[in-house]
User: What shape does this take?
Amino acid sequence: MEGLKHAEKRLSLVLFPICLLSQTHRFNVQRVLRYYAWLTTIILLFCLFRFAWIEPELFTKYLNGDDLWEMGYAFARSTGNHAPALNMHVAFTVVINFYFFINRTRDSGISSLLLRLFFLIISIILLFYINTRLAIASAFFGIVLISIYQNRKAFSLQIMKKLALGLILFAVLGLGFVKLFPYSIQKFSSVTFAHMDKVGKIDELENPEAMVFNGLVTRLSIWQSAFEVAKQHPWIGVGAADGKQELNRYYKNSDQQFLAKYDFPAHNQYLDFWIKFGILGLLICLIYIGAFAWIGLKTQQVLCIFFFVLFASANLVDDFLIRFDGITFSGFWLSFFAQAYLFDRESRERTSASL
Assistant: This one.
């Protein structure tokens, strides 16, 4: 039954290409991306107001600066989502909004500019509120990537203006957020890198739940264990249904009781596929995620390239291809960008044939 569950999750990777790549009508890539980002921003803004309405005690507590480590997770749970997964969507939304803000058409009026600025600011605020470290870093990188890539042929004053505008806006909102929620500085520094000498020895800490539950040392301990399990079954793996059980068995056999207690998954998609499907699974995972970079470069679509950066880095610290939302999120956008690539290729072939 567990094996069937994994197969059912990945069925979308068959359905999306059938539904999207079989279309004879070419999608308007720019319009779909813009409306997706705007609709996502509106929905999440509504969810934030809803969170303040249904959880006023929590919302007030966070505004007062109490227990800020759980703020993003509590908001994400109120929407039925996992905070890192939700913030991956938001990071993509921030970069899309920035892309359309700096690439508005010349004939667009002041109202269009203000509307795009509004969506950009709201999406950045949501990104900081959910407050997962990698998503914030990815969005920051995406702003730099969009600014440089769009003007890559001539590094000019124009590109410096766009880059400065994006970074200043991001920095101002970030500083304002840190002023309101000062725990963010601690989260990005001391909490993240605390007790790095305890990799594989977390049980030596007196209270690991309070001290390192979200720390890098926990991730490194999990990855170390996952790598050892992968080395035990390097070629064919242990199967989709048994990967997590094998990892938890290793926790117990190596006397890592904290990791065994919470039954942590691999938190790294590449190691997870290596454990489950062997070296071929790892290779297929790399090809699947790398397809975004290949299609993005072929179509010169910078948002597709950014999606590769976002999804590849997100799967270094989590395993989104074992989650239905991660599978559908990537499968939809891969099929969507692939359709644009196929139409571009057909157009080039017709042009060559006519010549």
About this structure: The CA atoms of residues 101 and 116 lie 5 Å apart. The mean pLDDT is 83. The chain has one domain: 10-192+268-354.
